[in-house]
Amino acid sequence: MIELLASHYTYVLAFVLLGLGIYMTIASENLVKKLIGVSLFQTAIFLFFISMAYIEGGSAPIVPHAENPGELMVASPLPQVIVLTAIVVGIALTAVGLALVIRIYAEYGTLREDTLREVRADE
Amino acid sequence: MSSAELLLPLLIAAPLLAATLPIVLGLWTDRTGWPIAAVTTTALFGAAVALASAVYTGTDAPITHELGGYPQTYGIQLVADQFSILIALLVTAVATGVLVYTRQGGPRGNTFYTAYLLLTGGLLGITLTGDVFNLFVFLEITSIATYALVASGDGPESAVAALKYLILGTMAASMYLIGVAFLLMATGTLNMIELATAIPAAERPTLIRAGFGFIAVGFATKVAQWPLHTWQPSAYQQAPDGVTPLIAALVSTASAYAFGRLIVTVFGVDYLTTMPNAATIVLTIGCVSVLAGTALAVIQTEVKRMLAYSSVSQFGLVIAAYGVVIAGSSETAFIGAAIHLIGHGLLKAGLFLGAALVARSYGARTVDEYAGLAKARPVVAGAMAVLLLSLVGVPPGVGFVGKWYIALGAVQSELWPVAAVIFLSTMLTLAYAARLLEKMYFTPPAALDWPRTREPVATDGGDTTVSIGMLAIVVIAAVGAVALGFAGGTIAGLLEPFLIEVFN
Questions:
Q1: Cα gap B137→B175, rounded to integer Å
Q2: Is the separation of the CB atoms in B127 and B342 below 8 Å?
Q3: Are B464 and B361 in contact (CB under 8 A)?
Q4: What is the ipTM of this complex?
Q5: pTM of the predicted model as reported, rounded to 2 decimal places
Q6: What are phi and psi of B78, to 5 degrees?
Q7: B63 in Cβ contact with B121 (< 8 Å)
Q8: Which of A63, B29, B289, B449 could form a disulfide with B225 if both were Cys (CB 3.0 to 4.6 A apart)?
Q9: Following CA atoms B137, B148, B301, B371 in sequence, which dihedral angle do they give, to the nearest 10 degrees?
Q10: Which DSSP letter does residue B393 get?
Q11: CA–CA gap between residue B323 and residue B279 (Å, rounded)
């Protein structure tokens, strides 16, 4: 168990963050905090991808040295490309989400889900 | 490079590029959105038909295209085979058809058509991609466009519905992404065809199992399966009337298609059969949704909400069919799932268009308000009756053919509980469909307060005119539902080469 933690602590960290993110989304009554939770959840997945690509002693997968390319150890570039794309997607989603929150706040004057429920029930 | 192969990237790139035009042209004039969307979707439908004829009649199916010329090992591949082109046809046909309604029925404005075209492009991307990560990107493009469309409804309720949808939808897509991460970890590739050979050979099956678990949860949310369906009824109800047919017919359908594609092509039926609990989980999700969805639909008073819950149960049938495919390697159930995807898409597009039409011209939104509709609006009522009966599964409607194949597959695989659920669901579907039919045909309108003119709302400014085109599109959907019912055997025949490859 300790060995696993020592060698795979990035995975453990990623899944702890994942849990925090999903808990925040479910438990927080504040809509902005819910969105922060969603962002945290996504960031944890990015970390998971990055730690999967890591090789001990490997360098960044940019341009391999010209001499004996077979001996060079590089981290896998594919997960890094994926994370770049996923970050862009995540930003777009957060932007749309915040725009919706602004509209809800303008209409109802609250960011709390429980208050929102009461206001909507009254109407 | 053949001309059919070039159509593949064009089908995705054209709507995404055309989506920028309404905004750019909107700088000068405000009424350009509809013509651009109409020209684009019609051209897309034409392209999809051309591609379909190449796929179904040509010898070189499936048609594939490597984006940027990178080989499939690490590049992105687009694939048009017998299964994906069927969904592409549905997407382009419904996208073109719904435009006939929105021309007068609204919502208006150029930004609406930008989102409309983005959605179409995203859906075609989901349909045609051959790369599991690319699928995630298109899922999110589709979702973002859908959130924007739902939020464009009048009144603040639509923003709340859209935010709920956004949070759940993002979580679902992220779950799918975790699944992809596990697959990448176990196999080192993202291409669907490469994965199909790499997954059975993977050294660590635990990673694959975990990946399948996350993917199943992700798609169960995207397809709106009980108890993860909570975003769907409010999103369908609060979306503008012109948007709901498009979303209801296509967005969940594309996700369900993607799940089916992952099951049969990526994981492979043989592999999933040996995976412990995979069949049980998928079957349980599907069957529970069928029952819960219908039970919830029966107690609704709003027509749009009732139809939304009906979608939960109809997609439950599709997911249950996938379960039968896994559990019994049943080709028949897979044909049923494909036909039901197409049929349900068409039926729901028609029903929501009908509901929009009734709300616009008759002012009725709840089941009770539909009283006397058959006398006042005989054509819409007739078309909706045909669509509802087809949804129940009365032959020769398309709903019957899909359910028949799924039930037949369940019986052949000796999965008696599943077969029982399917027959029970037909009875329960009748319960809510009959409620609406009874109101439309047998309850006199005098039983309710009169007059029933709806108070004008912001988007259409109280405009209650109904054009011939709007009426025609609902009738076409109803006729199409019956015609497709007769075409069930033909669709099965078209899918045959794909099935031989998957189930050999």
A1: 13
A2: no
A3: yes
A4: 0.90
A5: 0.90
A6: -105, 135
A7: no
A8: B289
A9: -120
A10: T
A11: 5
pLDDT of residue B304: 87
Structure tokens belonging to residue B341? 């995807």
Q: What integer is the mean pLDDT of B66-84?
A: 82
Angle between helices B303-328 and B278-298 (to 10 degrees): 160
Q: List chain A residues with CB under 8 Å of B74.
A: 78
Residues of B in contact with A97 (CB under 8 A): 163, 166-167, 170
Rounded to 10°, the helix B82-105/B110-128 angle is 170
Contact B325, B278 (CB under 8 A): no
**A-interface mutation test, from B152, B160, B180, B228, most A Cβ less than 10 A away:** B160
Chain B residues touching residue A35 (CB < 8 angstroms): 167
- The CA-atom distances, in angstroms, between B53 and each of B8, B57, B80, B184 are 13, 6, 11, 35
List CB contacts (< 8 A) between A26 and chain B.
none
Confidence (pLDDT) at B455: 46
SS3 of chain B: helix, strand, coil, percent, to 5: 75, 5, 20
Residue B425, token pair as written in the block: 């669901």
- Which segments in chain A show pLDDT lower than 70? 62-72, 123
β-strands B63-66, B77-80 pairing: antiparallel
Backbone angles phi, psi at B45, to 5 degrees: -60, -45
Phi, psi of B397 (to 5 degrees): -65, 160
B159/A107 Cβ within 8 A: yes
Residue B105 has which token pair?
A: 């029925």
Here the tokens at position B160 are 């709340």
Q: What is the pLDDT of residues B435-492, one digit of tens each?
A: 888 888 887 775 555 445 444 444 444 566 777 878 888 888 888 888 888 887 888 8
Tell if the CB–CB gap between B177 and A96 is shorter than 8 Å: no
Mean residue pLDDT across chain B: 84
- 3-state helix/strand/coil string of B139-190: HHHHHHHHHHHHHCCCCCHHHHHHHHHHHHHHHHHHHHHHHHHHHHHHHCCC
Identify all chain B residues contacting A78, using CB atoms and an 8 Å cutoff.
Answer: 74, 184, 188, 190
Quote the pLDDT of residue A123: 67
For residue B328, pLDDT beyond 50: yes
**Optimal mutation site among B111, B143, B178, interface A, most CBs of chain A within 10 A:** B178
What whole-number distance in Å separates Cα of residue A15 and Cα of residue A9? 10
Structure tokens that stand for B100 in this block: 């006939």
3-state secondary structure of B77: strand
Q: Which of residues 36-75 of A touch B (CB under 8 A)?
A: 38, 41-42, 45, 48-49, 52
Q: Which of B139, B166, B180 to mutate to test the interface with A (most CBs of A within 10 A)?
A: B166
Angstrom distance (rounded) from CA A115 to CA B13: 44
Length of chain A: 123
